[in-house]
Amino acid sequence: MQTSQQSRSSGAAIHRLYHQPDHIEPFSLTGSHFQILNNNGYPNTVTVTTSNQDASVGSVQTFNEQFFTLESSPAVEYPVYNSPFGGSVSSNSRSPFSPQESSQSCLSNLHHSPDKSYGSPFSNEVEQALKEVEMELLGPTSDFEDGSITSSFDNVNKYHKMLQMGISNLDVKQTLIAIAHAIDDGLKEEATALMDALQNRVSVTGEPIQRLGAYMLEGLKAKQLSSGSLIYKKLRCYEPNPKQLMTYMSVLYEICPYYKFAYTSANIAIKEAVQYDSHVHVIDFLIAQGSQWMQLIEDLAKRRGGPPRLRVTGVDDGDSSYARGGGLDLVGQRLAKHAEKHGVPFEFHAAAISGSEVEWGNLRVQPGEALAVNFPYMLHHMPDESVSTTNHRDRLIRLVKSLNPNIVTLLEQESNTNTSSFSKRFEEALDYYTAMFESIDTKLPKNIQMPRDDSQRISAEENCVARDMVNIVACEDTDRVERHEPLDKWKFRLQAAGFISLPLSYSVVTGVQEVLREFSECYRLWEKDGALVLGWKNRPMVTCSAWRKLE
């Protein structure tokens, strides 16, 4: 199977997860629309024929961009859980915790304050013991960043001392990091002992760090056994049926704002870039269900002087057809029907191929049309120079530049898991997904009530997020397809290809702010180098940036 066909995703497991469904009841979530990663399509064209505002440029208040470590609070013993990928959750799947509050203040919640470190609320004696262990692990002259352990563990006695502290006193996050370093150092027995000890401290129905720990622990076991690729493929083979998978994606789309943020910001930026053009062509490099363009069609229908003629080219490989229930022709029919309803002349072109296989001729660009290119959480799946000499990541960027687009929108997770060493990659993924799991544990929109032991919530996390984490932690070489890069690296790649940044307007900012109103106040929005960043507290999570060809 080619690398491009192995990419699933919270990148597509977040784009795949989250292309919003048509209508979601507050809460049986059936019949919703969202974006998926998989695809299979037919190269036919569906044509339906039916009969401006100035973008004010503004900036968003820039928050202090310090990175921080979140906090876990395991305070009780938790039952041993069955493997989260084994089909069952637990013999007793009820949460050992009191249900979280449906609404909680970011500022008043001391355990989740950005100023506090992630750690268990132990007694002073235990905290002091942890500090002593940390000093022994790191050494007095160790150089480490952001409060996370980055030094090599070169003495097995240090791991033994952690074990001697007792299982109930193990800090989940720091123990996971210790295991990663032990694996990196080839200390199999010590890593195994720590994993066995941590087994009773994690739970798929627990607090954020404990739910995350359950999946990370599986990834570490697979990494140590060099079975990551096999497990990752099995996770894809034993996924739920299409109806179930769509429900789980709908759940995640509703309780996380990351994709609503991305689609809203990209749509407004594109609408402004083509506001005076009579023929508009949108190329979506991960079309999935096509739901992102429903709102754009409605916005274009309201344009003063009448809507333009809209053509959408949807690129998608064969994977999404599973959850979609058919090929790309279904996407074209759905969008054509919506365009006809709103009086927008519309044409759809299906390019049923992987992004790494796309060539100029697949995109059918025509003279005289305004061109908008959208990269929705997909470029990080393209192998770069560290994986292949072909470097499809940069090749695709250069190909798009040759099309001379009016605008290119790039939506990506703000994480760095591409070329780092294993232990650094693990720590980055752990910090990122800690923030994600914490963010869906607070106030949920639309008065949704979803306790930690809710079966749909557990299934959504397992099928739509955990799969990506296993890929990051346990897979290597071409099998590792979740290769995120931070905004600065994307900026370097795009500028090297001949693009310049298009600062997002104040209209984009206000549109995203409106989306965020129904979510926790701990979500924060700020500007960086003309791009828009959505963070959980002070931790950047996703970015939207816009680009045009340098003249």
TrEMBL record:
A motif (VHIID) lies at residues 280-284. Pfam families: GRAS. Residues 89-105 have a biased composition (Low complexity). Keywords: Transcription, Transcription regulation. Residues 170-230 are annotated as: Leucine repeat I (LRI). The keyword Transcription applies. Belongs to the GRAS family. This is GRAS protein. It comes from Artemisia annua (Sweet wormwood). The lineage of its organism: Eukaryota, Viridiplantae, Streptophyta, Embryophyta, Tracheophyta.
